[in-house]
Amino acid sequence: MWDHEIKAMASTHAIIAASVFMATVLPAAFVESFSVYGTHLVWIYAVSFVVTVVSVAVFWLLGVTPPTKKHTLGYKLSRLFRCCLYFFLSCLFFHTVVVLYGAPLIESALETFSLAVLLTSLTTLRCLCVLGPNVQAWIRVFSWHGAMSVWDTCLQITVSCTLIGAWFGAFPIPLDWDRPWQVWPISCSLGAVIGFLTGLVVAPTWIHYHRKQLTYKCK
Amino acid sequence: MKGLPVLALLLCISSLYFVGLYLFVGGFLLVRLEVNRTSSCGDVLQPAGEPVDFCHVQPRLRRAVVLIIDALKFDFARYDHSNAAPRPYENKLPVLEEVTSSRPSHSRLYPFRADPPTTTMQRIKGFTTGSLPTFVDVGNNFASSAILEDNLIHQLGQTGKRVVFMGDDTWESLFPKKFHRSLPFPSFNVKDLHTVDDGILQHLYPTMTGDDWDVLVAHFLGVDHCGHRFGPDHPAMADKLTQMNAVIRSVMERLQNDTLLVVMGDHGMTDTGDHGGESLKETDAALFLYSPAPLFPGPPSQDEPEVVPQTDLVPTLALLLGVPVPYSSVGQVLLPLFPPHGQTEGAVEGLSQLEALWINAKQVNRFLETYSSMASDIPPENLSQLRREFSRLSDQYLSWVRGGGPPPPRLLFSLQSYLSSVRDTCRATWARFNPFKMAAGLVVLAFACLTCYVLSELSVVLIQENARRLRTPVVVALVVGVSVAVAQWFARGYADVSWCLAASALTSELLFFWTAARSASWLSHPLLVPPLVVSLLRCASLLSDSYVIAEGRVVTFLLFSLALYVPVHLNWCGHLVPPTPDPLKAAGLLPSPTLSSSAVRKETTTLVGGVGLLVLSLYLSLSFHACREEQGSCRPSPFLSPLSRLQDSQLKNLHYVLSVVSLALWTYLLKRCLSHYGNLNSSGGAAFTARWILPLLSVFLGIYWAVSSTPEDNFKDLGELIRLGQLTLPRAVFCLLGLGLFLIWLDPLTVFIKLRSSPSSRTSSLPPPRYRASTSMSPQAELHHLIPQIYQRMRRSLEDGEVGEGGGADGRPAVEAYGLGTVYSAPLLLFCGLLGVGLLLLHPEGMALSFLLLLLEMGAMLYIHASSTTLRGHHSGGFTVSWPPIVMWSLASSQFFHATGHLPTFPSIQWGAAFVGFPEGHSGTILPASLVALNTFASHALFAVGCPLLLFWPLACEVRGSRGGGGGGGGRACGDEDEDAVMEMRLRENPDQFSSALLQLSTRYLFLLGAQVFASVSAAAVLRRHLMVWKVFAPKLMFEACSFLVSSVFLLVGVTLVLRVDVAVAQWFKKVIPEASR
């Protein structure tokens, strides 16, 4: 029923997952003594950057992004500007939420913000790619009947997987195991990335097995 | 409504929990058997063979002065020459250093390690009996009863030594009539730094110069009280320690040659001045020994002990003074005080090291034999190993004594290690459990949780049949309990209460399940919905010590997650955003929305605002946490210390103003809320309380804070007045609080009727004719029918003229009843508010901010709950309160336990609460204990009382939604308006549903609390050999159990209040209806 989309989605996700893998492996060639724990912030930014670039490129190539109504250059530019603004605001939003969840306010603010950037590039960026800078559409997507295409369903799954992963990532922090990955924010960012990767796998699989039940309202 | 079944059911279920807890705690908390034998002069023998009367040998020292300086930490006693800028508690006892360096063979200073719990009474027991404490003893500090075990004081008295005691009156209760002369002074008032010490000093020197004593014990409390009141880092501590320095110096000057001076602390203190736990700061006290005659064979050598355990003082003192070592002592003599064998140079004489150790080992072995014959808790393999070791050593020793010559080289060392291993064995085994009781308790608790859950699911059925189903289990349980008791009586001659309770609880639970399983499908709902998962996570977190240590943050984290879950879930269900105009709906394919889009928008705004407020107060509440000793880098909240401890007067003023402002805001918000719903207009007791007593309470509290934080020294002339204020103001608050609560109970109605009428309009206010037609009905049915109608009439003209005019257009505005819509919630809210002010009185002043946050958070949760209920449109069916708000409510009660500066550890209990209004201390134990309990479990009490608000709030808030809808729709049908505006009167229309909803809400709340208790009980049971069990899990269990107790009691109070209101409303209607239809 949605075979074409599912195939496209699976390959997209494979590309994104591969890019995350590359972002974990490749920087070792450029940065001295690179490791996920040791130079954690570098890893976070590498993953964020790669995911951002790859997602934007892939979704643009696939043409999932809703077509703009006007085709003037000014409109496109303002749209681009709004996307950047939303990206930044979402970073701030995640930062606030993470701080409210109990992250230290002043000390290790940079680490917290890096986590916010990672979360933004894993979740908000996808919203921007699929739905455009339209908050109402975002809110609409995250409801029972809100998905209007396979891509929306996929968005629901990956975003919730990422956030749940990051949420679970906070669990080991108070434990007294003295492991290197318990340091803030490593467990959370690892949780988020693992959740994201899980979402990438789960979304096409789930949609494939439920493709008969999926019906979408037309816009 | 059916009040009695609800109450009876709640009582039953709570008593099931209590029985489970009682059983478990009875099996879990450790008990050590006390050996009631005493040593006597004949039985501790010199090795030579024939019995020698031990007591008639000339002792080495004839007299001893024991100065106990409570909480003399080792750091206080150490002197550091290089320290140029000492803290207030450093370098204040130079006399110790002077003497130890100038007369090394006369004096020594040791760190003196106490066994936990480091509370004063436990320590006095420890260093007089020489035995090890068990966990159970902790609670006895209030009512210390006489020591029955053999102890040093008893032995001294038995050998005819005259023991004179002065100081802390705990001794007097521990050793009644044992002293030759005793001068006790009251010890319980922590704020009083000088009474005890001055009293001692008045009598110490005259007594010393007299000849009416052999052993003089003086127990100074000033340092400890100074620590409790100001903390160690305060100028008052410097004064106190300097005073102690002078005391030690002048006592030394008065010593005679045959006298031993012991200066010791019974325990240390933490950096905040508290004690009770087992951190090194609390356990390490100082021990200083001195005698004008040479005491030690030489200057400090290599094999000096680094740390002296507190139990070791007992045998040492006993042997030095020539009395038998107390029977159950497991201490080891302090070897440096005894000369090595054959070394008789100098004035040191008496027992040699080997002899002393031999006597010591023999006494310990004898105790071990007696104890193991009385109780079987020491593992047999350890016991037989110790026995073998002792017989080997005794053979070695006796052959050496008979043969003479140089002592075997290793004997000294093996005797020492034997004594240490005995002590270690005892320490390990006096953690003894009763596994059967524990298992029974666990089973009863588990079934109680299940019963509670089933009850909450079956509440509708149960109320409908008037809880008849419960009668059989209860009766059978009673019968079984009694028969078990009788059987035990015949079989063993006595009845063990706990087993009777266990049997009856289990049978009642099983019978209940049997009847429940037959009738209904009570597992209809899925259990793994996110709110219950959150609650499950919370319970699971109690199984890990790290999570228990970080509990405050864990609970906040979970609550925050749940707060975010509510709007996300609503959005997922499509309730949050106003539905877009949809062609499908117009065509009737989808059900039309129950709420207009503007109403949805309004509710959404409320919801988001509520979530924002909740999140904000959650975040702010994190800054009121105290710190456990395990949390290394944590700094306790600055608001936790009472104002009187603050030095900086500007900061003090700032804190004071903040506290008063938040207190005023608390009062204002409550009054605002009540007057918003029109509850302040009536002239009844509750409204009077809200209008006058509540503000008066706050004013008194504000003045009390000012008075109690004023340093007495600064205002010498006002000292009397300040003392008076500290006494009377809190008592006035207590009295007012009692009066207010009593008035609320007496007259809970906050309804004001205004008959807006001349007589003519009153006649015109006759109900429409159809009511007359209904006179043929039975009066009961008529009443049921009438009430809503009358209410709606009143409601139409409620509060503002707008709606009233609508009614006027209808023809006949009859009666205005202000506040009828919130008739149930208003007294409850007021009750909560009053109770909150009362509980705030027991807290440090800075906690006012935290209490304000508590109120805000409560409000936020209520509004979130109300608007999500409205958005979901659940009004039509039942009044069921869904899980998320209840889970949030129960989490918030734990969260504010931490955010009001409490921790589940014994040292963190705020004992100061017992002295609020009673600065002179107490004579009984119930009053201070309940004050401390109320202080500790304040948030649990408040949230439990306020729990029924969850049922009322959606109803109280519904009017806004309908009004908004009316405004937005620009004129909806009048009938809708009427139907919507019933508010809490809906509950009266459906009394059965009301009862079942109330029952369901309370049982759900009890279920959540009970699940927590069960989790913490399981943690204690499963991890009973865990390293952290006495530090983390056992205190957590005790606190969890107590909080459950407090919560269930206050939940019952809240439910009873609701029932009381219901009765009052029924009476009111009876009074009003004839009036209105006249």
UniProtKB/TrEMBL annotation, chain A:
Domain of life: Eukaryota
Pfam family, any one: PIG-F
GO biological process, one term: GPI anchor biosynthetic process
Annotated membrane topology: Multi-pass membrane protein
Key words, A-Z: Endoplasmic reticulum, GPI-anchor biosynthesis, Membrane, Transmembrane, Transmembrane helix
Functional pathway: Glycolipid biosynthesis; glycosylphosphatidylinositol-anchor biosynthesis
GO cellular component: endoplasmic reticulum membrane
Cytoplasm keyword on record: no
Keyword field contains Transmembrane: yes
Protein name: Phosphatidylinositol glycan anchor biosynthesis, class F
UniProt organism field: Cynoglossus semilaevis
High-level lineage: Eukaryota, Metazoa, Chordata, Craniata, Vertebrata
UniProtKB/TrEMBL annotation, chain B:
Mode of membrane association: Multi-pass membrane protein
GO molecular function term, any single one: mannose-ethanolamine phosphotransferase activity
BP-aspect Gene Ontology terms: GPI anchor biosynthetic process
Family matches, as InterPro entries: Alkaline_phosphatase_core_sf, Phosphodiest/P_Trfase, PIG-O_N, PIGO/GPI13
Gene Ontology CC annotations of this record: endoplasmic reticulum membrane
Origin: domain of life: Eukaryota
Pathway the protein acts in: Glycolipid biosynthesis; glycosylphosphatidylinositol-anchor biosynthesis
SUPFAM superfamilies noted in UniProt: Alkaline phosphatase-like
Location(s), subcellular: Endoplasmic reticulum membrane
This protein's UniProt keywords: Endoplasmic reticulum, Glycoprotein, GPI-anchor biosynthesis, Membrane, Transferase, Transmembrane, Transmembrane helix
Record has rRNA-binding as a keyword: no
Positions of transmembrane segments: 6-31, 442-464, 470-490, 523-543, 555-572, 607-627, 653-670, 690-707, 728-746, 823-842, 849-866, 937-956, 1005-1023, 1043-1061
Family: Belongs to the PIGG/PIGN/PIGO family. PIGO subfamily.
Protein name as it appears in the record: GPI ethanolamine phosphate transferase 3, catalytic subunit
Organism listed in the record: Cynoglossus semilaevis (Tongue sole)
